[in-house]
Amino acid sequence: MASDSTHIAQLTSELYFLIARFLEAGPCQKAAQTLIREVEEKELLPQRLDWTGQEHPGTYENLVKLNRHISPDHLLQVCSRVCPLLETEVPASVPGLISLLGAGRQNLLRTSKSECI
């Protein structure tokens, strides 16, 4: 099993990709291009393996090709599904009030042991 740090690194890399996809499809296309350029320069995207098993820095374009099933609004869809799922496990203090920016019992990071703030 991968270590926590490896798992977090993979999630972070995938999140950069999803953010770029989201930005690229909306009105912030310059921001998307800047993000894509920077994550490629800093090699923050998942690496790719060639036919000999050698690792190479990943590119945004290659990730788009490999993940054709990921739509530009994939990140938005994930966020819209998190709120109802969490609501069934740990109800918020104000049912039906859904925000990614909530605090206290409206926070998306709340747990059953969280204190109301």
Task: Describe this protein's structure.
The protein is mainly alpha-helical. It contains four helices and two strands, in the order H-H-E-E-H-H. Helix 1 runs antiparallel to helix 2. The longest helix is centred in the first third of the chain and has 21 residues, at 4-24. The protein starts with a helix and ends in a 28-residue tail after the last helix.
Characteristics of this structure?
mainly alpha, globular, 4 helices, 117 residues, 2 strands, two-stranded antiparallel sheet
Class based on secondary structure composition and strand pairing? mainly alpha
Tell me the fraction of residues in β-strands, as a range: under 5%
Shape: globular
Helix content: 40-55%
| Total beta-strand segments | 2
Distance between the termini: 36 Å
Radius of gyration: 18 Å
- Taking pLDDT < 50 over at least 5 consecutive residues as the criterion, the unreliable ranges are none
Provide the spatial order of strands within the biggest beta sheet.
1-2
What order do the helices and strands follow?
HHEEHH
* Contiguous helical run count: 4
The largest sheet is: 2 strands, antiparallel
Give the overall pLDDT as a whole number.
88
Short description:
The chain has 117 residues and is mainly α. Helices cover 49% and strands 3% of the residues.
